[in-house]
Write a structure and sequence with these properties.
The chain is mainly alpha-helical and 387 residues long. The chain contains 6 helices and 10 strands.
């Protein structure tokens, strides 16, 4: 090949044709791949920058699965909270039925003074049976606290009832003007403790307390309500245990940690709660012991109200965390798009531009071939002379 001598014009046209062919090949490759930067040789800066952007987009994309699972974990817990709230409301409705049914006793516990009082309803102090400064002490008993009442210079029956109300007791004067102390409906199942009179001289005294008399029909209704209530309490526990997603249950003591960026520095820790019946402060009731009177029902309602408050507080916290996670999920999706778009801007070819370049290079190649042919004509003329 070194022995072949080409004229300057032929060599120049040949070089131009080779350059055009190389550019045409590059353009066609850009059109085929859709990229103007296919390797570090094309543009090192753009190539490695685009690769870095794509790698980050890929890392964040991998985190999206975990974030999506976190959304579902929160959704499962929120669904559980909604169901638990409905169950608590149902249990509260059952407890309220106890308050609406007839009193569970045909007769409540009473204790009566041994003798008639000398005073009246307007003023119990008569100077003989009851004196000012004298104390009436009702001992504590099951379901009733101890109550001590100090008689003033003129405390009326109404004032005595005000003092006794703290112990779920009420006082009245019977037809014989004897003082009768009775339990209220709220404590109808309780038996009044011993009633004694303080040391200040006075002749008032009280006999033994009479126990309450149960109403079988009413107690059967209340016993049935206990069973209904316990069924609801059992469902509260199982519902809390079933509120899981992918093995994570925020209502059964599990915690959730979500990572939002590729460095692991942007995270959200969500602490779970234990919202079975025990965790909500709700206990099963005992037939024949609970719901016997209004006090038991009111205690259950108080516990249910506290449980309802806890559920609402947790629902608010879950809602807030769910909003945060969904916002970060949308942010990550948008950021991935930004990174991939940035990478594409550095490497993707403009197909319109490359198509135009290809057409122009094809035209140039045709012209170069023609020019090369013209350059060879002088040598063809010499050949004709030698013939």
């Amino acid at each position: 090949m070194t022995g072949i001598v080409l004229s300057a014009s032929v060599r120049q046209n040949l070089l131009s044709l080779q350059s055009t062919a190389s550019l045409l090949a590059t353009t066609q490759n850009d059109l085929a791949t859709g990229n103007k930067v296919n390797s570090a040789l094309d543009n090192p800066t753009n190539y490695f920058t685009a690769q870095s952007l794509n790698n980050r987009a890929s890392d964040i994309s991998n985190l999206l699965d975990g974030i999506g699972n976190g959304v579902q974990v929160l959704q499962a817990a929120n669904t559980g909270i909604t169901s638990l709230q409905s169950l608590v409301d149902t249990a509260k409705s059952i407890a309220n039925q106890v308050l609406q049914t007839t009193v569970g006793y045909t007769a409540k516990s009473t204790v009566t003074s041994a003798a008639a009082l000398g005073g009246t309803a307007a003023n119990l102090v008569d100077g003989a049976t009851i004196k000012a400064g004298q104390t009436i002490i009702v001992a504590a008993s099951t379901g009733l606290p101890a109550v001590t009442v100090t008689i003033g210079a003129s405390e009326s029956l109404a004032q005595l009832n005000t003092a006794l109300a703290a112990g779920n007791l009420t006082a009245s004067l019977d037809v014989n003007n004897k003082l009768v102390i009775t339990t209220t409906n709220d404590a109808a199942s309780s038996t009044i403790g011993a009633v004694t009179v303080g040391s200040t001289p006075g002749t008032a005294s009280f006999g033994a307390a009479v126990a309450p008399v149960a109403d079988p029909a009413s107690q059967a209704i209340r016993s049935n309500l206990v069973s209904q209530y316990n069924n609801i309490i059992a469902q509260i526990t199982t519902t809390a245990q079933d509120s899981s997603f992918n093995g994570i249950n925020l209502l059964n003591g599990d915690n959730l940690k979500l990572t939002f960026n590729e460095t692991g520095k942007s995270t959200l820790n969500i602490t779970g709660v234990t919202y079975n019946a025990t965790g909500l402060g709700l206990n099963t009731l005992v037939s024949g012991t609970d719901f016997l009177d209004n006090n038991s029902a009111n205690n259950a309602i108080s516990a249910l109200s506290a449980a309802s408050t806890s559920l609402r507080t947790e629902a608010s916290a879950l809602g807030s965390n769910l909003s945060i996670v969904q916002i970060r999920q949308d942010f990550s999706k948008n950021l991935i798009n930004v990174l991939q778009t940035g990478s594409s801007n550095l490497t993707l070819a403009d197909t319109n531009e490359e198509a135009a370049n290809s057409q122009a290079l094809s035209t140039r190649q045709s012209i170069a071939v023609s020019a090369l042919a013209l350059a060879n004509q002088s040598q063809q003329s010499v050949l004709q002379l030698l013939r």
